[in-house]
Every structure is written in structure tokens, then in C-alpha cells.
Amino acid sequence: MGIEAQLKEFSDFSITYGPLVLKDLAVLLVGLVAARLAFWLCKAQLPRLGMTPRSATMAGVVVAALLIAVTLTYCLRLMGLDPRLVVRLMLAVVITLVVLAFLLKPLLPNLPFKEGNTVQIEGLFGKVEATNLFHTRLKTFKGRTVFIPNARILGGTVVNFHFTPNLRVDLDVTVSYQADLGKAEEIMLRIMTEHEHVLPKPPPRFWVLRFGDSGVEISGRCWVPNVKAFRTKVECYKSIKAEFDRAGIPFGRARRAVLLQSAEADDPRV
């Protein structure tokens, strides 16, 4: 077959099937865009209705898969093919994937957190924004976005501040040796007890920790909801400073002893 015959055959094919192919491509493109948009809408809006971020992501995947399946079926019907064969093949693939996921899930390691948790990973303190099979995206409280490989997370130490509902807050203070410890205890216990986020059980406690170089080290300890821990600690410290100043309780100060010795005292000839 010569070149002219091949060009004529290609031209006839393009004239006959070209519009149909373009129409299929347009429908496929619209379907893929709609599936991606539906996925992101589910992931962003469903958590506002009370659904967990992981469940919202799974719902988005299901909706997107359904839209893609409908789009492919419609494209096959436009081309004059029997879509039932493709539907059966897709159902077989989905069932196989579900069975494999059910069987292999206990063998797969799980990350010790989920999206939205406040964590500390390798010295980085922030909130988990997203996770996938390869890395975790962490937004630190300094505004930086850090991508951490999941292999390093699984092999290291992770502190999850949302794993338990409550967290103990330690209010460590150093006061002067001349300070009235009984009065300091009364003030700190009252501040902790009256704070709106401090839990009544276990009750706030006061401890004398040690006699340090700068003064007596004391501590007030209370339990609060972990999402309120940082704010509670800051507010309690602010109240302790104001109350101690009002009550005349001095804070400890660093002291250093300097020994002066003349050169004559070091001279063995003197």
C-alpha cells in the first residue's frame, strides 16, 4: 500500500471517527475534573458536618471513583461498545482491592497520629496537615511547612498531644529564700482552682521541688484539656506574677560568689 493510500485511509478514519473521539475526550476530561472537584469538596466540607478527616477522605475517594466509572461507561457507549464488560472488570478490580486491603491492613504500619493532631516529631512541634503513603506534611507553629518521610516517623519518637484527652500542666517557679512558702502555695492553688479550664479531678497540687542556687524551686500542677494546655499555662503564669507581686513574694535571682585573692597570697616567697 502506497503512502497516498495510507494518507487517504487515515483521512477517512479521521473524518469518520474524529468528532466521536474528540467528544469522548471532552466527556472524559469533564468527568475527571468533576471527580477531582468532588473529592476536594468532600474532604473540605464533610469534617464540618462532624465527620472525621480520614472518613471524609474515604468518602471523597468513593464519590470520585463513582464519577469516573460513570464517565467511562458513557464514553464507551458513545463509541458503540458494550460497557457491561468494562463495568464487570471494574467491579472485579474493586472487589480484589477491598479483599487485599482487608487482608493486608493488619500487616501495614499505622502512623501514630491523624490529620489535625498536634504532634512533636524530631524536635518539630506543629499540627499535621496531611498524610499519604510516603510523607507527612506538618505545619509548625512558626509558620513553616515541613515534609517528613513516613519511614523516619515510624522509626523515631513521636509525641501526640491529642492521643489522650487531658494533659498535666506544670507551673514551675523559683522564689527567694525569704519568701513565705505558705502564702505562695495558697495563691498558686487558688489561681489553678479558679481557672476555667483546670479540671477538678485530679485536684491541683503544690510541691516544693528543691533548694536551688537562685532560690526555692516550687511547682503547681494541674490537669487541663490538652487543646487548652498552652493557653492555660500562659494565663496561670501571668496571674502568678501579678499575685506574687501584690503579696510581696519575691522571685529568686541568680547569685554568683566572686572570691578575690591578691597576687601576694599566691607567691610562696611571701
TrEMBL record:
Endpoints of the signal sequence: none
Record localization: Cell membrane
GO cellular component annotations of the record: plasma membrane
Gene3D superfamilies cross-referenced by the UniProt entry: 2.30.30.60, 3.30.70.100
Molecular function (Gene Ontology), one example: mechanosensitive monoatomic ion channel activity
Keywords: Cell membrane, Membrane, Transmembrane, Transmembrane helix
Predominant subcellular localization, coarse grouping: membrane
Residue ranges of every copy of the Mechanosensitive ion channel MscS C-terminal domain listed in the record: 169-251
Membrane-spanning intervals of the chain: 25-44, 56-79, 85-104
Bilayer topology term: Multi-pass membrane protein
Domain of life: Bacteria
Domain Mechanosensitive ion channel MscS: 112-161
InterPro entries referenced in this protein's UniProt entry, alphabetically: LSM_dom_sf (IPR010920), MS_channel_C (IPR049278), MscS_archaea/bacteria_type (IPR045275), MscS_beta-dom_sf (IPR023408), MscS_channel_2nd (IPR006685), MscS_channel_C_sf (IPR011066)
Protein known as: Small-conductance mechanosensitive channel
Organism: Desulfoferula mesophila
